[in-house]
Amino acid sequence: MSKASDEKKKKKGRKSKAEDEPRDSESKPKLKRKDYEKELEKLQVELVKLQAWVKHTGARIVVVFEGRDAAGKGGVIKRITERVSPRVFRVVALPAPSDREKSQLYVQRYIAHMPAAGEIVLFDRSWYNRVGVERVLGFCTEMQYEKFLRSCDRFEHGLVDDGIILIKYWLSVSKDEQEKRFHARIEDPLRQWKLSPTDLESVRRWYDYSVARDAMFMATDTEFAPWYVVKSDDKRRARLNCIRHLLSLIPYEDVPHEKVKIPKRNDAHKYDDVAALTFRRQVPDAY
Question: Which residue, 73, 92, 124, 249, shows the most beta carbons closer than 10 Å to its own?
Answer without folding.
Answer: 73
